[in-house]
């Protein structure tokens, strides 16, 4: 009989899936790599696609804020993601291939934002550069990265349909979580999360504060952010709330970074 080879450790002989083992490590404090950084996600569809009238004032505001606040700017995809997904879905592309294709667009937006922010030290970084963030920030760099999480071909199948469930909101949240960030702010083209779509329903009401499980219980037909973020938030170790604000209104990011409870706060 062959005996399993082991190295002496506290995990010796474990399958890494035993519930008792997992509970042993529940509640342990994890290292916060960048505890003072604010992860600011700029929506592709809601912000970038509007071009200069929205992006230039926002870039100026971000640049001014970068003197007093550490930030990591994360970009979304937008209308071009919808275009490539439309073609890919018609062709029957697997979900993993759709994720690989759509991720290229948020990278393009990251390049444009980094150039737009260049006078303030803006520099485009890649996913592997996230561990260099403390050094980059100390050098006065304003880092910009894309929000598509690097699942790519390994994207998990969605509950419904074929569209990749982990997109740029999810990527921004996961970046904030692994960094142990101070905050995670999602900038959209609406004031926050509403009871229904405020762009089509004049009676939609803003939800100023809500818990993740309450959103899931509501089973809303459409959300202003990706549902995967809401599902993951209760399990987060570092990021215990997400703030959604309107990126079309000058000064909103300034107020959010000052700690004002504006827009919508989603709590774990």
TrEMBL record:
UniProt signal peptide: none
Keywords, in A-Z order: Kinase, Transferase
Domain Aspartate/glutamate/uridylate kinase stretches: 37-220
Pfam families: AA_kinase (PF00696)
GO terms under cellular component: cytoplasm
Any one Gene Ontology molecular-function term assigned to this protein's record: molybdenum ion binding
Protein name per Swiss-Prot or TrEMBL: Uridylate kinase
Organism of provenance: Methanocalculus chunghsingensis
